[in-house]
Model the fold of this input.
Amino acid sequence: MNRFTLRAAALATAMLVGAAAHAELSPEELAQIAQNPVGNLISVPFQENLNLNAGPYKKNLNVLNIQPVIPIDVNEDWNIITRTIVPIISQPAYAPGQTRTNGIGDVQFNAFLSPAKPGSWIWGAGTITQLPTHSDPLLGNNNVGWGPSFVFLHLEHGDPWVYGALLNNVWSSNNSTAPSYNNGLLQPFCNYNFHSGFYLMSAPIITVNWQAKGSQQWTVPVGGGVGKIFHFGKLPVNTQLNGYYNVDRPTFGPNYQIRLQVQLMFPK
Done:
């Protein structure tokens, strides 16, 4: 048995043991753990975003975000929570002569410093970095970007409510001849959990392009959906289905969004 096989076997064993430990938690507790963006838990969310009626030709814009979350123990008091967002994009034509463009967009990397033993109010503060990893010029920007990133939430054992917000802002470094950018994001979230692991939720992603003019700056969705914890064997999986209507949007922005998420949950 070679070294790679041994490592793979060790990793698989660790995941199975960890999954068994999580299987002992109640479905409601698992749901609340999944709803904490800076929880001390390895997870891999696959978030499918179907944006309807985007662009001048009113076609669908599809973005699949793969978002592995990996916590790192600094010491007994502090953790660093890393979140990488890899977007896989199918973008409709925005100009005559264009066709649909498929590929990878620009990767974003978040790192939050967060207390290892928080109370009912939990917070994380750190940075976000955007890297020009796009596979097609239409799917990204050649400038590296960075900025601050924050999260805060209320989560208390025995309380069915989990609520808070995540926010960041990314400025381009202008290290290339590509256009500069200055983009902000605010995601308030509110969840009500039932004992069965089923929950009601709303988590709209509000974005702003600070360099756009007037009514072209903001995209503001309103809506919500449902979530449920399932198990594949002993592996807990968090699933969500949401729908949103953009009450404010740029001229060629989509008017509706359907979001489906499947999150694989592994303990450290």
